[in-house]
Amino acid sequence: MSDRLEWAHASSGAELLFPGEDIDGAVVEPGEIAVAVWTGSNGIALHGPREAVRDRLLQLALAVHEAPPVPFADACIPERTDPRRWRPTPLPRPLAPGPAGPALCGGVDRPAAADPRLATCPDCIEMWNSDTPLTRLSLAHAVPAPS
């Protein structure tokens, strides 16, 4: 994976590109189709055989549909939470952060995530995972390429 992303908002314009279309020196090859999402003057494109592009987009749509609740506010993991003892329970919806206090990352007055899976602080996540937790946390969830 790369360390750089071109960000495209869900409301960005998109178009299907067919073989022969040349954009910035990249040509859609015969037998392929591309889906381009525009980010202003730049864009990103997913390309390949029609069925492969369709299957990947459906797979990504399903991953978004089935994703856990998305935090709606910045929050840290409270310092008192023990990664070696905490057990997840169903999380049907995002929960508002609790009162501010000491955080796992060392922050003094940080909003407390109501559930560690709703933490948005990379330092808290790193500290959590370094303490042999029962449940590892991550701010990114891979969607494997279709086989």
Plain-language structure description:
The protein is of the alpha+beta class and 147 residues long. Helix content is 17%, strand content 18%. The protein has two helices and seven strands. It has helices at 50-66, 122-129; strands spanning 14-17, 22-23, 26-27, 33-38, 43-48, 98-101, 110-112. The strands form three sheets. It has a three-stranded antiparallel β-sheet. The longest helix is centred in the middle third of the chain and has 17 residues, at 50-66. The model has no long low-confidence stretch (mean pLDDT 90).
Summarize the structure.
The protein has 147 residues and is of the alpha+beta class. The protein has helices at residues 50-66, 122-129, and strands at 14-17, 22-23, 26-27, 33-38, 43-48, 98-101, 110-112.
Q: Give the beta-strand count.
A: 7
Helix proportion range: 10-25%
What structural class results from the helix and strand content?
A: alpha+beta
What low-confidence regions span 5 or more consecutive residues with pLDDT below 50? Answer: none
The helix/strand series, from N terminus to C terminus, equals EEEEEHEEH
- The share of residues in extended strands comes to 15-25%
Euclidean distance between termini CA atoms: 18 Å
